[in-house]
Amino acid sequence: MVAVSKRYGRDVSSGRGEGGGREYNYSTLLEELRVRIADGTYAVGQSLPTQREFADEFGVSRDTVQRVLRELKDEGWIQSRQGSGSRVVKSPIHSGTIPQEAPRLRAALGPFVTRAFAQPTVRLDVFTLTSESLDAHVRLQAEHIRTEYIRTGKITTERIELRMLLPSESVQLPYPRALKPMGEPEEAYGPEQLDRLQERIQERLRGITRRHTTSLREALRNLETEGLVPSVAVEVRSVPLVPAFKLYLRPGTEALFGPYEVVKRSISLDDETEVDALDVLGLGSTLIRHVNDEGDPNSTGSVFIESMQAWFDACWERLAVTS
């Protein structure tokens, strides 16, 4: 008999989530919970399941669940209080920052990607530090295409074109930058020890990028393999630049632009070492929307989109190499 979570309708009969028997660990559980928050499964203001419920559903230890929740809190997705559990916050927060009662309205990546995928031909150009945020939203759209085809039997998306620029792995990024393990005095760690920590958190970042880039590619290419989208073109190139901002372009239509804010936060390594570090938070960062005004080529939105498209195309053609 299949046991189903009464609160969220998840199959927990085998100690795993609904991913067809997917094996969960720290990284995959973190990814799953990010997606659930992004797609509204855990709505803003809603309390999350308990640590025990998560452990039972995904077949992981309570320690793993605690690490994942700490990471989500550091990234600004959730807020936790002793004895009260965790809940999805109204607006993203950074460590040590109190959320505002009436946050400013911000542009969001989810609706932007939804608008792109509402067109028969999906065109996206992206420059980002990792593909983490985009991956979650693209996989949601891929699942929507699959669900709609099952429901109607019709193909609505004719072609998907995605070009993505990521920083070259050879580039020495200034963030994340290790400071010291949490709770340890700074004088206890010399340059050589910090260098080792630095390489570990840089490799962690590279691992995040590889994982989400692979996930995104597979999600889109599977649509073509399954016959749900006749043509899919996904190309990723690396460029010798340090991203100071993220850029999402729907060529000739609209753009999202967001600067990366450097913050101090803790980073959890695979061996559960907690490292104080300077880092940037892509998930939940402020995004500014610009819209092309077809009737006024001199409008702020039109000029911004034209100039950023020219910048992207120049980097793509002259600086980038295929990953």
UniProtKB/TrEMBL annotation:
Keyword Signal applies: no
Domain HTH gntR-type positions: 23-91
Entry keywords, A to Z: DNA-binding, Transcription, Transcription regulation
Keyword check for Transcription regulation: yes
InterPro entries: Bact_HTH_transcr_reg, Tscrpt_reg_HTH_GntR, WH-like_DNA-bd_sf, WH_DNA-bd_sf
Region Disordered, residue ranges: 1-23
Domain of life: Bacteria
Entries under SMART domains matching the protein: HTH_GNTR
Protein name, UniProt field: Winged helix-turn-helix domain-containing protein
Lineage summary: Bacteria, Bacillati, Actinomycetota, Actinomycetes, Kitasatosporales
